[in-house]
Amino acid sequence: MLRRLFFTILLVPVTIWYSLKMLKVDPKTSTPAEYDRWGLAWGAAAVKLSGIRIEADMGEVDPEGHYVFIGNHQSNLDIPVLFKLLKGNRIRFVAKKSLFDIPLYGKALAHAGHICIDRGNRRAAMQSLNEAVETAKGGISPLIFPEGTRNTKLDELLEFKIGAMILALKAGLPVVPFVMTNTGRVMGKGDFIIDNRPVVRFKALPVIDPSRYTLKEREQFKNDLYAMMNEAYKELLAKG
Known about the structure:
Blueprint: H1 2-23, H2 32-50, E1 54-57, E2 68-71, H3 78-85, E3 91-96, H4 97-100, H5 105-111, E4 115-117, H6 122-137, E5 141-144, H7 163-171, E6 175-181, H8 183-186, E7 200-204, H9 218-237
Helix pairs in contact: 1-2, 1-5, 2-3, 6-7, 7-9
């Protein structure tokens, strides 16, 4: 219980501190390591504070590889866990606009190169996806949650949005689908106190060559990806 409270009390000041550090970095003159440093440090600190245990099957993912990552989303805790597990892949999140509206933290997100997407504005959302494609061409690995929101129905994945498929196909990078379980049990949507007893499990699925699909076949890509990820999610969920 003490650690559960400790995490809740300290996460906000820790996030503020790392956000201030991030804002001091000049992306034009910094090295990739310098530019990525504070986001990775924040993720590691948040995971340590939470006291969670993580079991990860990284499959065939190159720890320094350049990919588009597509995965399910249950919790705000997903973000630090993914920073920890994919620390060498230079990930940047495609995240909802409301996160970028948070004072200081939102400014740090934008400064770090994460991509804001306004799902309430179709034209702006498409522009954001195009920006994510350009970011990917600069050596960054975009990471997107195709469910579009945190899933509170933990027995299966939510229906996928098409934007993740468009990003993956336009970027032309190898696609790494992944599934995670139990972050929603540890810290679900709307929760402020964590339950760090469940083991957080992560599984990277086989890497997909995006040339298997054309942009016109994005709906088929979406359906195939959902079927594969949902099946893998249920198998991982069965491990407890």
